[in-house]
Design a protein that fits this description.
Among the domains are: about 25-55, no CATH class; about 70-125, Roll (Membrane-bound Lytic Murein Transglycosylase D, Chain A). The chain is built from five helices and two strands. The protein has helices spanning about 15-20, 30-55, 80-90, 95-105, 120-125; strands spanning about 70-75, 115-120. Helix 3 (about 80-90) packs across helix 4. The longest helix has 25 residues, at about 30-55. The chain is rod-shaped, with a radius of gyration of 39 Å.
Length: about 130
């Protein structure tokens, strides 16, 4: 048998510490782009959520009637939206008038209370 001797260069602790201190982490262009994308991700998500949810543009029934002048009608016992629509605009289709009154007054249903005041849309107020 033949003996083979393998020699390895002697590495000291000193050579390892120099190598560790001498190297600096360098980002490539691709690495910088990835890092920028990761940093910008929360802002992009926040903007997307704001766009999907409508931001601060909220429609509310509490906003009341639109600015402008309009006539009002006081509801009496036995009145319905249909009879009020026929009285206010006899030449117009009552369905259209009822729909306009409901939208203008932000009514949730067709039930009216005696003494309730309803705004009449300007387009029908002059026909009276």
């Amino acid at each position: 048998m033949t003996a083979i001797s393998i020699t390895t260069p002697a590495l000291s602790r000193r050579s390892f510490s120099r190598a560790a201190n001498g190297t600096r982490l360098r980002l490539t262009v691709r690495g910088r782009r990835v890092l920028a994308a990761i940093a910008a991700l929360p802002a992009v998500i926040a903007i997307a959520v704001a766009m999907v949810s409508g931001g601060s543009a909220l429609a509310s029934r509490d906003a009341g009637a639109p600015a402008g002048s309009f006539e009002t009608v006081t509801v009496f016992h036995g009145d319905s939206l249909w009879t009020i629509a026929e009285e206010v605009a006899p030449q117009a289709d009552p369905r259209d008038v009822v729909d306009a009154i409901v939208r203008l007054n932000a009514l949730e249903g067709v039930t009216l209370q005696a003494g309730q005041t309803l705004a009449i849309p300007a387009e029908y107020a002059t026909e009276r």
